[in-house]
Amino acid sequence: MNSPFFLKSILLLSPFVLAPLEHEDPQLGFKIDVPKDWKEIALATNERHLVGKYESDRKYYYTDKTFGYTMENRPSMTMIAFGEKSDSSGPVTGKVDGEKNNVVRITYKNPYDDYLDYLRKKTSGAGWFVDSEETVEVRGIEATAYDIKIEKSSNAPMRVNAWVYHLPGVDIAVEFILFESVYPKLKRSLNKSFKSFKVIERTETRDKSTELLEVDWGDDTPQDRMKTRKAVEENQRKKAQENLPEDWIVKEMSRYLVLNHADKKHAKKVVNQVDAMFKWLDKTFPYVNPEEYVRAPIIRICANVEEERSFQRGSSWSFTNIEILTHKSTAGASSFEWGYLNWRAMSFWFSDKDRSLWRNLPTWLKLGLDGMSRYGGTLKGSKMQFAATSYENESIRESFRQESVLLPSELIRLPVGKFRNVPRGSSLLWECVSFTRWLLEGPGAKSKLTKGLAEEIILHAQVVLEERAAKEKKEKEEDDDEEAEPMTEEEEDAAFEADSNKWEVRTQAFVDEVFRRTFEDWSEKDWASLDKTYMKYLK
Predict the structure, then answer these.
(1) Distance between CA atoms of residues 179 and 174, nearest Å
(2) Among 185, 235, 237, 184, which Cα is nearest to 208's?
(3) Is residue 45 over pLDDT 70?
(4) Smallest Cα–Cα separation from 210: which of 329, 48, 412?
(5) Which end of the chain is more exposed for a tag (fewer CB within 10 A), N or C?
(6) DSSP character at residue 296
(7) pLDDT score at 6
(8) Residue 249: predicted pLDDT
(9) 59-68, 226-235, 238-247, 362-371: segment of lowest average pLDDT
(10) 4 secondary structure, DSSP code
(11) pTM higher than 0.85, yes or no?
């Protein structure tokens, strides 16, 4: 998709690919000038609406006059395609599960209707308004020019300049985003790019095998899902390399495709960490749908945190995405970054095993697993080890001093509402982490009373979720009445509040039923024994 006019000698001097004079897309049939010295940003593998992304090599700053904080920003240029009809289902053929010409039926979906729909969804529908809209013409091509301001949803006033070019069968939006204060300085350069847009002959055909595959897990068998997931793997690996700037290194390491913009040594450490995490999950939770195939993720390692943020900016996310994204910090990698790798691997594994289960685990257990992976999970040799951090120890010591530490019998029974918006570093979070680790990795994993308790909870949760899904499906089929859409702001607020309350009631009912089934045979003596044993360990 890029122009062939790259300066190879200059590429060696920069961690980024310097933008070519022109961005050229022979599949969609257009090219356009990119501002001088802007760098190309890689596209995520789950993208199909974004077809090009660039960023200024220069940072600009905005200082708030009221509060005095300063923000930085690199203006961005994004090309977005709309209108290509890809909403019909069709077979994808290829080598799947070792067999040739195995057919997997997959639906292609276009996530946005047009540019304004894209903007509305990307900004969550708030904080922006169209300042001006006019029809322009560039070399006989009709285009709609939008001047958009973002104020409420941003800490700094932002300007969006976008021209949408109306080509046969497809609209191409070229979008610039920058600080409002910087716009007068760059306006001339942006307009020059807009007016350089040219239609070219479509010399390449879009390979459907590299488009985003939206997978409907449906009621298929595990074998069907395995074929589909392997097709997604192949699809995403192709797309990852298709959209990769030229100075990235592509290498198969273990079972992972690694896209590396850092050094080889760091890449090996990252792969070893992810691999060890997957092995720990397989060993610790062998009972979670053992027949389900877990896809091999793509590991993308950015050169630094700035590049990672640039990569994420404007990108969408879906369950189809199989990337694990990280970067190398100036210190090699922060403990936070290693923790994120652990968490991403865990969420990836559980989502492929049972997405509904991962989203609906009892809250204390979900918080505990999240915290275990993010904090204190380190690689020792080839195995993962999980230990309490100094922050966790200090928080629990403080809870003991204040006599506020929760007994396990209290923690497990806490109402769902108590877990809403639990802040990072809170005593409740650390207590969830500590108890979960005790159950899975500590003395609780060997105790006669609690050995296998986590397994019981999770298996009961799966059964309850299946029963609930079947009941709700039946109720939906029997109820044909459509709910009226809210018409006023007051009605919208009331609907939001009602949905929020409904979620809490629904979740609490689920947690209560899992609790009942898991602990229905427990006596008061059992609960007292659990509390005594765990608190002795904790002290």
Answers:
(1) 17
(2) 235
(3) yes
(4) 48
(5) C
(6) P
(7) 35
(8) 94
(9) 238-247
(10) S
(11) no
Q: In angstroms, rounded to a whole number, what is the distance separating the alpha carbons of residues 52 and 116? A: 18
pLDDT of 149 strictly over 60: yes
Contact 134, 148 (CB under 8 A): no
Q: Give the pairing type, strands 141-150 and 128-138.
A: antiparallel
The secondary element (H helix, E strand) that includes residue 478 is helix 453-478
CA angle 48, 207, 171 (to 5 degrees): 45
Structure token pair of residue 22: 């022109």
Structure token digits, residue 453: 């308790």
The tokens 């909870």 sit on which residue? 457
The whole-number average pLDDT for the span 149-153 is: 76
| Rounded mean pLDDT, 309-337 | 73
pLDDT of residue 300: 94
Instruction: Compute how many other C-beta atoms are within 10 angstroms of the C-beta atom of residue 246.
Output: 10
Query: Which one, of 259, 204, 260, lies nearest residue 236 by Cα?
Result: 259
C-alpha–C-alpha distance, residues 95 and 102, integer Å: 7
pLDDT exceeds 90 at position 106: no
341 within 8 A of 274, measured Cβ to Cβ: yes
What is the DSSP code (8-state) at residue 420? Answer: T
* Angstrom distance (rounded) from CA 385 to CA 377: 6
Which domains can be identified in the chain, with CATH numbers? Answer: 8-89+105-207 (3.40.1000.10), 248-359 (3.40.30), 361-473+498-539 (no CATH)
| Secondary structure of 518-534 in HEC code, one letter for each residue | HHCCCCHHHHHHHHHHH
What is the spatial distance between Cα 140 and Cα 162, in angstroms, rounded to a whole number?
A: 18
366 contact partners, CB below 8 Å, separation of at least 6 = none
Q: Is the pLDDT of residue 400 over 50?
A: yes
Query: Rounded to an integer, what distance in angstroms lies between the CA atom of residue 429 and that of residue 367?
Result: 7
Per residue in 424-447, is it b (16+ CB within 10 Å) or e — as a string? eeebbbbbbbbbbbbbbbbebbeb
HEC per residue, 185-248: HHHHHHHHHHHCCEECCCCCCCCHHHCCCECCCCCCCHHHHHHHHHHHHHHHHHHHHHCCCCCC
Residues 6+ apart with CB under 8 A from 494: 486
Contact, 302 vs 308, CB < 8 A?
yes
In 221-334, where does DSSP find H-type helix?
222-242, 264-284, 305-312
Which residue type, as a one-letter code, is found at position 315? Answer: S
Tokens for 201? 């002959």
Q: Give the residue, 18 or 446, on which the prediction is more confident.
A: 446
